[in-house]
């Protein structure tokens, strides 16, 4: 069995590819495309200008990694804009056999890690737009304190436990 980009050597799917990308010790790239989800259908193929008109920005939670690989050595000294153009051409004209996404288009994201520096780029209607901090965004999760407060405010709350939790955490 030929190993695919998103499988471990044992054929099992890899998990947390964005973290693997960020931790890579060599030059790598990652292609991200919008998940198939009715809630974000209006973001598919939308230019950055169109997103801003709607009051939106690209949200990493709406994307899935569709490809990850080492950056070819022949592009080592090329500027980012040339590498991005080469990747765009590659994923439209001579796609890797194990790439299962659609041809690169507006609203897709390409992340590069070169010489330890990470940059993320939105495929726009003309060229690419930098997405500062795109991979830094963490999904919003309620804090432990907010979860405790919600539980204590619930009708089935144990008053003794909640009183202690409120005292300890100043809820």
Automatic annotation (TrEMBL):
Segments forming domain YodL-like: 29-131
InterPro entries reported in the protein's UniProt record: YodL-like_dom
Pfam annotation, one family: YodL
Protein name, per record: YodL-like domain-containing protein
Species for this entry: Faecalibacterium prausnitzii L2-6
């Amino acid at each position: 069995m030929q190993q695919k980009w998103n499988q471990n050597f044992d054929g099992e799917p890899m998990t947390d590819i964005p973290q693997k990308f960020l931790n890579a010790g060599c030059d790598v790239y990652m292609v991200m495309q919008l998940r198939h989800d009715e809630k974000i259908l209006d973001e598919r193929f939308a230019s950055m200008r169109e997103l801003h008109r709607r009051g939106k920005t690209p949200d990493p939670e709406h994307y899935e990694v569709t490809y990850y690989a080492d950056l070819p050595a022949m592009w080592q000294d090329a500027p980012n804009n040339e590498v991005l153009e080469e990747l765009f051409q590659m994923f439209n004209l001579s796609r890797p056999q194990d790439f299962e996404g659609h041809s690169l288009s507006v609203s897709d994201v390409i992340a590069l890690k070169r010489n330890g520096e990470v940059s993320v780029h939105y495929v726009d209607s003309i060229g690419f737009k930098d997405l500062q901090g795109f991979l830094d965004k963490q999904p919003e999760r309620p804090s432990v304190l907010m979860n405790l407060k919600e539980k204590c405010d619930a009708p089935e709350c144990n008053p003794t436990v909640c009183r202690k939790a409120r005292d300890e955490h100043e809820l």
